[in-house]
Prior knowledge:
By secondary structure, this protein is of the alpha/beta class. It has helices at 61-74, 81-85, 100-114, 139-147, 163-166, 175-188, and strands at 16-17, 24-25, 88-94, 121-127, 169-172. The longest helix has 15 residues, at 100-114. It starts with 15 loop residues before the first strand and ends in a 15-residue tail after the last helix.
Amino acid sequence: xxxxxxxxxxxxxxxxxxxxxxxxxxxxxxxxxxxxxxxxxxxxxxxxxxxxxxxxxxxxxxxxxxxxxxxxxxxxxxxxxxxxxxxxxxxxxxxxxxxxxxxxxxxxxxxxxxxxxxxxxxxxxxxxxxxxxxxxxxxxxxxxxxxxxxxxxxxxxxxxxxxxxxxxxxxxxxxxxxxxxxxxxxxxxxxxxxxxxxxxxxx
Length: 203
């Protein structure tokens, strides 16, 4: 009698991309990603924070620290009146700009609005690829956000050279995203007029 053979369906490969994450993940691999992995802002790290459904983002240490860091930068002394009123610009970046970065953008917009700081911030999101350009965010993520009172209206777009001029802080959703953003910067800086230290904006 022949031993039973386990047949793996081609529809269920052992490694699947999770929500446009930059890597393929095994079911045995933890896919927890800190909201704001940061070396320049250590206080943004909060690996013990409970998952979003059980936590009010407005009370999140990560978002609180981002607000403080942003406000401190916005209120720094400057020589021109235009600079004094310029909003602090934050760009959230993931792979396709239809799930993680639009969610981060929407949550941060909601927090800023509730704190009455709309005029102090310019908030946007982008992706490292243009595959979903022009599309709304993933409907499942939008539905989940809406149940929590947050409306996601962003339209997917890829990151562009001008982002390195226009934004004060570019927050990558994972390490691979960060590497891709810096790689793009290193290519663009030779044919675009970009600040020499713009790579320092990426976190």
